[in-house]
Amino acid sequence: MSEDETSGRVDFGSHRVPEEEKAPLIRALFDSVASRYDLMNDLMSGGIHRWWKNQMVAWLNPRPGQVLVDVAGGTGDIAVRALPRLAPEQATFSPSIVVCDTSEGMLEIGRARALDEGILVGIEWVCADAERLPVADHSVDLYTIAFGLRNVTRIDAALAEARRALKPGGRFLCLEFTPEITPLLQPLYDLYSFHIVPRLGRIVAGDREAYTYLVESIRRFPRQSELCEMIARAGLDQVRFRNLTGGVAALHSAWRL
């Protein structure tokens, strides 16, 4: 066991920090880029992230009456896509979706976006950590986390919390960047990731360090098969994954049986 493991240190981009410091650092990072977060996603991916998220909701296949907890969902990309399927008539004031995020800045953007799109009911916006969700045991039908699992302090704890929240028969779906992509794309991907993305972060979001962190966090994230093993160890079943765009991103699916 390494010295970092015994002293309670975890990855934060290219650095190792004390475990208790990561969550505040992540919160501050996303608060700082919240106003330009969606624009940066469009610029970095050429808009492909929108297709990835559409694929996520299509594979999730939410149905009317189900309840979804969307973790790290601050700006509402998954929530606004899923809500028409969960509450097609917008007839109930009970939330169909609970959006959880540790960044109040991201949640403010999400709330404002929903109002701009005429969504007045159906979504509850809650500032909460992925390792301590504000939902009862076995109370939600669906759990999603898009581009958020990299940022939690303890992935195992977040996955265990997902299982706790899901009802028997509930569905888990994670969309995340991956470190293992098609070899032919790797050189171009490395050039873009390490040189272009941080520059875009500096020019557009005014925060080069935040997007340097993003690149480094992807490189330290478990590979697709490793994440499958972690999800299974958390007690979720029928784990599988689907690569998107040559493995630049992947969807991991599981069920709580």
How is the secondary structure organized here?
Blueprint lengths: L2 H4 L2 E4 L2 E4 H15 L3 H9 L2 H13 L7 E4 L5 H10 L10 E5 L2 H13 L6 E5 L12 E7 L8 H11 E12 L8 H20 L2 H12 L4 H10 L3 E8 L4 E8 L1
Parallel strand pairs: 3-4, 3-6, 4-5, 6-7
Antiparallel strand pairs: 1-2, 7-9, 8-9
Give a description of the structure.
The protein has 257 residues and is of the alpha/beta class. The protein has a single domain, classed as Vaccinia Virus protein VP39 (Rossmann fold), CATH 3.40.50.150. The chain is 46% helix and 22% strand. The protein has ten helices and nine strands. The strands form two sheets. It has a seven-stranded mixed sheet, sandwiched between helices. Strands 1-2 form a two-stranded antiparallel sheet. A hairpin with a 4-residue loop joins strand 8 and strand 9. Helix 3 runs antiparallel to helix 8 and helix 4 runs parallel beside helix 5. The longest helix is centred in the C-terminal third of the chain and has 20 residues. The N terminus is likely disordered.
